[in-house]
Amino acid sequence: MFTLAVSIGLSLLGGLGGLLIAASLLLFSSAVRARLVPWLVSYAVGTMLGVALLSMLPTALESIPPLPMFGTLLGGILLFFLLEKAVLWRHCHTHDCDVHENAAPLVLIGDAVHNFVDGAMIAAAVITSVPLGISTAIAVAAHEIPQEVGDFAILLHAGYSRRNALFYNALSGLAGTAGAALAVLAFGYIPTLLPYALVVAASSFLYVAMADLIPGLHKARPDAASFRQIALIGLGILTALLI
C-alpha cells in the first residue's frame, strides 16, 4: 500500500507539477518565455541522462545480463521512435510546433499516452528504491515543463481558452496515476519484469534527451548560451547523483 501511495504521489508530482509550472510561465511575456524554456530544456537533458545512465541502467544490470539489457534498451528506443512517428510521443517547446492546431485533440491523446508511460516508469523506479523514484519524478517533471509550454501554445492557437487548455492538460496528466497503479499491480504479480521496465524507462529518457531535446539546443548561437546549456545540463546530472 505504501509503494502504491508513493508511486501515485510521485506520478502526480512528475505530471501535474510540471503542468502547473508550465501554466505559470504563461503569465510571462513571450520574450521571457523564449529565454526561460531553453534553460529548462537544458536542465531536463541533464536530469534525464543522469537518471538513465547513472541510476536506472546500473540498477537493471544487477538483475539481468548485459546482452538482454542492451537488447531491451535498443528495442525501447525503437519503440519510442515508432510512437513519435505516430504522433503519440512528441515534444514541442515552441509556438511554431510541427503539430498544427487542427491536431489539438491528437496532442491531448498523445500526452495521455505519454503520461501513462511516465507514471509506470515512476512506479518501477519507486519499487526499486524510493530515492530512484524521486529522481525519476524530477526528471519527468523537468521535461514536462517545456513540453507543456508548447502544448499550451498549440491549444490556445486552436481556440481553447486558458482555463480549458489547463483543464484538458490536467486531465491527460492524470493518466500518469493510472500508469503508476497498473505498474505496481503488474510488478507485484510478475516481479521479474521490474528490471526490464527500468531499462525501457531509461530508453525513454535517452530517446527524448538525444532525439528531441538536444537537437533543439543546437539551434542556439554558439556563444554564452552554450556555456549556460552545459552548466544547466551539469546541474541536472548533479541532481540525479545527489538524490
Describe the structure.
There is one protein chain. By secondary structure, the chain is mainly alpha-helical. It has one domain. The protein has helices spanning 2-25, 30-61, 66-85, 104-128, 130-157, 162-173, 175-189, 194-217, 224-242. The longest helix has 32 residues, at 30-61. The two termini are 23 Å apart. The model has no long low-confidence stretch (mean pLDDT 85).
Task: Briefly summarize what is shown.
The chain is an all-alpha fold.
- Give the integer mean of the pLDDT values: 85
Low-pLDDT regions: none
SSE topology string: HHHHHHHHH
**Beta-strand content estimate:** under 5%
Helix content: over 70%
* Distinct helical segment count: 9
Decide which structural class fits the backbone.
mainly alpha
The profile of the biggest β sheet is: none
